[in-house]
Amino acid sequence: MFSSTRDNPQGFTLPIILLISVGLMVIGLSLMQSTASIRDSLNDQYMNRVATEAAEAGITYANFCLTANNFAQSWNVTKADPATKPLTQKTDCKGDSLSSAPNFVMKNGTYRTSFKVTNLEATSDGAIIIVATGTFEQTRGESSNIARTLTVNRKQVVKWKTYKASVSASGTSKTCAIVTNELYCWGKNSNVGETFGGQLGDGTYDDSLIPVKVVQAPGVLAGRVVTDVFSAQYHSCALADGKVYCWGYNSNGQLGNGSTTTSPVPVEVEGALAGKNVTGIGGSGNTSCAIADGKIYCWGRNDRGQAGVGTTSNVLSPALVSTVNLGTSYTATALSTSGSRSYNMCAIINGQAWCWGSNEAGQIGNGDSPSNTKYTVPTKVYDGGVLAGKTVTAISQDGYSNGSPAYPHVCVIANGAAYCWGDNNSGQLGRAVNNSTDSNVPVAVYTNGVLSGKTIQDIVVGLQHSCVLANAKVYCWGNSGSGQVGDNTTSTKYVPVAVYEGDPGLLDKTITGIGGGANRGCAIAGYQSYCWGLNTDGQLGDNSQISKRIPTESVFLRPKAPSFIF
Questions:
Q1: Is the pLDDT of residue 254 over 70?
Q2: Which CATH number belongs to the domain containing residue 190 in this structure?
Q3: Is residue 97 domain-shared with residue 221, that is, in the same domain?
Q4: Cα gap 190→169, rounded to integer Å
């Protein structure tokens, strides 16, 4: 017979304790499993986070390398073998190993992370995609054996604001360029107080060794797209949305606004151009010209007939050039560039070259003997001889028209070849080795050397030198006393030579445009503007006043920082 619980209180205690113990064990196991699960989840989150941070470090490094390399991929990764020199924390921007670089982005005990960036991907709107892989690894103790690993891929769309130099033009002691449809100038901005100043167009009379922005907003250029610019002796003009805007020295009316008041900011040229669509501009010394509806209008200094209006009186606002020789049905397509100190203007009319103004060195090119005769109306350049049957597509002129001796010369491109005439004191016509003979008609530029087999796309001339763009490279000849030929020497070159392509400079770069004039040359390559030659007033824009014999980048014309689109 069993006793009651009162008589035997421990009869049920042990089972209850056992039940409670089992329950606590179950709960404990459950909590342990939950804790382990939470710990694993936290570990996974940590691994994912640090792997992601490593991938983002790769994207940041790739952006740095792209910015330093003109936005081109610099590391060597091929599609056939993506493992070939990727960008990692252990390499330079070319994918080459660095002995001093860390092996990992982060190393903490047995944890470590790294990144790898392979080929860039392109998008349909011109942006690029950077793909970076971040890797987390956990080793077993201090050994190199990997216990756990996790990889995370990160993509970032990068689109740089278009900030690209497209046109470069040099005046006497200054240079201007179009960058992203905006204007920048650098060099000398004053001569005698404010009388000859304001040619940088930034609203001041202060010289600048680096590019400064021409005033656009607020102002007459606000919101307008700038497509062309020329820079003459003490003034410059720009073409924007079919209108002309000028700034700088104006005692001869070269700003074209009907006054003789100097302006350090752009003013609109109206008068006879009002309501017309301007398609081309050009300038010379203190004279300006424009093409509207196929006709030529000029204004400014005219004492040598350089305005082409049939007189020698200054012209304060645009006037139609004389049609005495041209007739009224002509079509002009281009005006001469450069002309920093000359008293001439030239144009391409119906596919042929025409010039007017001074003729001290035969620069009119019509075969007349050099003289002080003033050609006050457009005069046709001799189109027989080397130009017979050819179509002129580019024209440039410059020179000291009041020098002793005078140094003006003119060059053109016709059917992919270069031809020049006028003064040849320093071999600027490029006729032949050691040939310094002037010519009052066009002569062919020497092509048995570096220009052999090349097609010439553009030409610019300076006071005593000339440069051409051919097959995406630059070639120059003539006086190089200030390094303006750009071949790393200061000796005169009577025939074309290649402009120096070392590093830094134009090494491995594709030249898309050339500029220059006066005593320097300039080239547009990728996103940058490069100049060489005389730099006593900072006209090279490299923040110095040291003349350069090789292409030097105009600082602060680099693209702006990229914007990231996630």
A1: yes
A2: 2.130.10.30
A3: no
A4: 18
